[in-house]
Structure formats: structure tokens, C-alpha cells
Amino acid sequence: MADALRLVDAVNSVCPWSGDPIRDDSLTLYRGAVVGFCNPGCRDKFEAATRAFDRAIADKD
């Protein structure tokens, strides 16, 4: 999936976890927007967190 995402399309220029510049190997799609991170570890941490919150919200309904 990350191969199809482009750095120029990211809604951010710095990683929300570290504040470092984002990289093209650390992009993800979130709610239809490309979000960038400084490394795949930060990206994966974000994806795990959003999945957890999405489950919690769904379980509350």
C-alpha cells in the first residue's frame, strides 16, 4: 500500500511522534488522507493506535 502513496500528497511535513521530517517509506492512508512519519516504526505505532480507538468507538455503539 505505501508504494502507491506519495510524499508530496502528505498532509504533514513532520512526524507527529518525533517532530522529524517525514519519509516516503513511512506513509499511511488515514481517513482518505496521506499521513507521513519519520520511520516505519512511528507509522506502525500510529496505525495500531488508530485501530485501537476505532475498535473502542465501535464497541461503545
What brief labels describe this structure?
single chain, 61 residues, alpha+beta, 1 helix, 13% strand
Would you write up a description of this structure?
Helices cover 34% and strands 13% of the residues. By secondary structure, it is an alpha+beta fold. The protein has one domain. A two-stranded antiparallel ribbon has the order 1-2. A hairpin with a 2-residue loop joins strand 1 (27-30) and strand 2. The longest helix is centred in the last third of the chain and has 21 residues, at 40-60. The radius of gyration is 12 Å and the shape is elongated. It starts with 26 loop residues before the first strand and ends with a helix. This is Glutathione S-transferase.
Question: Would you summarize the structure shown here?
Answer:
This protein is an alpha+beta fold and 61 residues long. The protein has one helix spanning 40-60, and strands spanning 27-30, 33-36. It has one domain (2-60).
Helices, by number, come to 1
Fraction of residues in H or I helices? 25-40%
- Structural category: alpha+beta
Could you spell the SSE succession in H and E letters? Answer: EEH
Percent of residues in beta strands? 5-15%
- Count of the separate structural domains: 1
Total count of strands? 2
Mean of pLDDT = 93
Question: What is the rounded distance between the termini?
Answer: 30 Å
**What characterizes the major β-sheet?**
2 strands, antiparallel
| Gross morphology | elongated
Strand order in the sheet with the most strands:
1-2
* Rg (C-alpha, Å): 12 Å
| Parts with pLDDT < 50 across at least 5 consecutive residues | none
